[in-house]
Specification:
It is a single chain. The chain has 13 helices and no strands. The protein is mainly alpha-helical. It has one domain. Helix 4 crosses helix 13 and helix 12 runs antiparallel to helix 13. The longest helix has 38 residues. The chain is globular, with a radius of gyration of 21 Å. The model has no long low-confidence stretch (mean pLDDT 82).
């Protein structure tokens, strides 16, 4: 029952965001913008998506003992996880890809889930670092953009640092059996929420151990920067299809704002992705609203189409493999 209510609320939120997104759109100009789109750039955008999942697989593999899994396993798990995320609200695909990896090797699913938690945490951290480099090395003259970027940077980095410090303190308290302050704070929350917080902290503590020594953590951050730089370049290709021609470095803040919108818990990122993209294209870069709507919807559609097609292919392959094993 609660799951149905959650799905209903996320769907209502998605509809409300789509209303904001489409408000004031001239659909004849919107259709014209889609007809004029450069198919070569859209093809490049689409072909770049498997590379994104591959780069994430290379980074994810760092968190596991050498030789424990083939790179292909992480690649397939990413496709399955993101496909589920696009179909269902609540990021349940993260659990799905952890379970897939857990079943494919010697490590438990809880081990895999710990790596997923760490990976997602460092997604935000990597984007924050990229934004910081962007602001320091590239002059931002737009006051609204500068203010938005600094807000994202400081919130992301401050939250990351505080979270790391908190995890270290909790880990020290648990090891030294000084658990009273930890449990006192937990008792301030309702029982169900308390259990969720406790499990999340345990997963993070468990996951952070994968990043020891420090050189391994720095290597992981390095790959995080590569992953999100590749995402920025992918959107550079996609937006050029609609004559939105910006220097590739300027796609870093666009990607960061898009990530904020996509984090809103709606099915398939619907609504949040659209509003964030349109806000940046219209309010920051001052492109025509109808062009912004056409570009945003087309790129989002391609993300879903390519990912779900790959997910269906992986699902069929796994079903055939299971059938052969049972036979």
């Amino acid at each position: 029952m609660k799951r149905k209510i959650r799905v209903l609320l996320s769907s209502i939120l998605a509809i409300a965001l789509l209303y904001i997104f489409f408000r004031g759109t001239d659909f004849s100009k919107f259709a014209e913008a889609i007809k004029k789109a450069n198919l070569l750039y859209l093809l490049g955008f689409s072909l770049y998506l498997p590379l994104y999942y591959f780069l994430r697989a290379v980074r994810w593999q760092i968190l596991f003992p050498k030789g424990s899994y083939r790179l292909k396993t992480f690649f397939m798990a990413n496709i399955i996880g993101f496909s589920i995320n696009y179909l269902l609200p609540g990021r349940v695909g993260e659990i799905g890809r952890a379970l897939y990896v857990g079943k494919k090797g010697k490590n438990s699913s809880s081990y895999s889930l710990g790596t997923v938690v760490v990976e997602r945490f460092f997604d935000a951290f990597s984007v924050g670092l990229l934004l910081l480099f962007y602001v320091l090395l590239y002059p931002v003259r737009n006051g609204k953009l500068r203010e938005s970027l600094f807000t994202i940077i400081w919130v992301t980095l401050a939250a990351s640092i505080l979270l790391i410090i908190g995890i270290i303190l909790v880990e020290v308290m648990i090891k030294k059996e000084v658990k009273a302050p930890f449990y006192f704070l937990l008792n301030l929350f309702p029982k169900k929420l308390r259990e969720k917080i406790k499990n999340s902290i345990k997963s993070l503590i468990y996951g952070m151990n994968f990043l020891k020594p420090l050189s391994r953590a720095l290597y992981f951050v390095f790959w995080g920067i590569i992953v999100w730089s590749a995402v920025a370049f992918q959107y550079w290709l996609g937006l050029r299809a609609f004559s939105i021609n910006r220097p590739s470095v300027e796609l870093i803040p666009f990607t960061a704002v898009l990530l904020v919108g996509a984090s809103i818990p709606t099915p398939a990122m619907t609504g949040g992705f659209e509003v964030a993209s349109k806000f940046f294209l219209v309010e920051i870069w001052h492109y025509n609203s109808d062009t912004a709507v056409a570009a945003t919807l087309t790129l989002h559609f391609l993300l879903l189409l390519i990912t779900l097609s790959m997910g269906a292919a992986v699902g069929i392959k796994e079903t055939i493999s299971l059938w052969r094993n049972e036979k």
